[in-house]
Amino acid sequence: MKKSIELDWANLGFNYIKTDYRYISYWGKGEWDGGTLTEDNTVHISEGSTALHYGQTVFEGMKAYRAKDGSINLFRPEENAKRMQRSCRRLLMPVILTDVFVEAIKKVVKANEEYIPPYGTGGSLYIRPYMIGIGDNIGVKPAEGYLFSIFCMPVGAYFKEGLVPTNFLVSEYDRAAGNGTGAAKVGGNYGGSLLPGSLARERNFSDAIYLDPITHTKIEEVGAANFFGITKDNQFITPLSPSILPSITKYSLLYLAEKRLGLEAREEDVFVNQLDRFTEAGACGTAAVITPIGGIQYKDDFHTFYSETETGPIIKKLYNELTGIQYGDVIAPEGWIIKV
Ligand SMILES: *Cc1c(COP(=O)(O)O)cnc(C)c1O
């Protein structure tokens, strides 16, 4: 019999919660083993693991949603599979095939089904796939062994009081190098972001905004989320750069802005000294969903968009369209929702 979980669904944050099962698979001698579910939430690895010393580690982030009819939705999991493959290739790690990845995600979600927040609470099951280089190594070279795992936990609605804008601070630090690993979801990009993020929060901003590392004139990322803006003449604009992490939420919004809201939508340079072209701005990603940006502090200037306290009409529409699709209330574009 399945035990039923009683969590305080309304007050979930974004915190680690140990759920019952995680998927784990090992690579050795040139192939993956079959992969299994385990109840053990610890991993036992060699002190020489490349993940520990040289950052040979990649991850993904995605969610499962409980629909009104009780079924479980995954949002574009094949895109996460493909992005993880690109991240792995960048760090000379073996890849997980898309079908294997999606099946493993389904297994983990199914096994922890009682942890999925009920429909209507605004919560979801956050899913964290990751891969690390393991084994007895010391030289700077790719590992011969790898561990691939997927765990999950219930997380709350990002906005408990509804969509509330927050402010951000343009950092003097870079998050990625021009031709570095910015476009890959690799551990090394995030260690370096802890200090700028903390400096921004010390000054009461939600997070740091990063400019392009080559010219420091263009917006690239908002913390660990992508930036977008809505222009006065109804264009959806999001930065184009090889050092931005290609957000699946961002590409989904580009599509929805054009096909469902009738906006012109495209990627192009977003100069930090030309923010007055935007009437609304937001940050987007799996965790952030859409965070309306109230204002941006850049050096001595504070630029406000729609309002510091209210969300603009286009962002509201985009938010409703996106979350409606994820929870199954709005018809999804072909292939976007995969049932568990
Ligand atoms: C994961 C991530 C995002 C958001 O990507 P999604 O696929 O939308 O979740 C954006 N920026 C950075 C730096 C990230 O790590």
From TrEMBL:
Transmembrane segments: none annotated. It catalyses: L-valine + 2-oxoglutarate = 3-methyl-2-oxobutanoate + L-glutamate; L-leucine + 2-oxoglutarate = 4-methyl-2-oxopentanoate + L-glutamate; L-isoleucine + 2-oxoglutarate = (S)-3-methyl-2-oxopentanoate + L-glutamate. The keyword Amino-acid biosynthesis applies. Its cofactor is pyridoxal 5'-phosphate. It is an enzyme of class 2 (transferase). Keywords: Amino-acid biosynthesis, Aminotransferase, Branched-chain amino acid biosynthesis, Pyridoxal phosphate, Transferase. Its EC number is 2.6.1.42. The modification N6-(pyridoxal phosphate)lysine is found at K185. Pathway: Amino-acid biosynthesis; L-isoleucine biosynthesis; L-isoleucine from 2-oxobutanoate: step 4/4; Amino-acid biosynthesis; L-valine biosynthesis; L-valine from pyruvate: step 4/4; Amino-acid biosynthesis; L-leucine biosynthesis; L-leucine from 3-methyl-2-oxobutanoate: step 4/4. Pfam families: Aminotran_4. InterPro entries: Aminotrans_IV, Aminotrans_IV_CS, Aminotransferase-like, B_amino_transII, BCAT-like_C, BCAT-like_N, BCAT_family. GO terms for biological process: isoleucine biosynthetic process; L-leucine biosynthetic process; L-valine biosynthetic process. One of its GO terms (molecular function) is L-valine-2-oxoglutarate transaminase activity. PANTHER family: AMINO ACID AMINOTRANSFERASE, BRANCHED-CHAIN-AMINO-ACID AMINOTRANSFERASE 3, CHLOROPLASTIC-RELATED. Belongs to the class-IV pyridoxal-phosphate-dependent aminotransferase family. This is Branched-chain-amino-acid aminotransferase. It comes from Carnobacterium iners. The lineage of its organism: Bacteria, Bacillati, Bacillota, Bacilli, Lactobacillales.
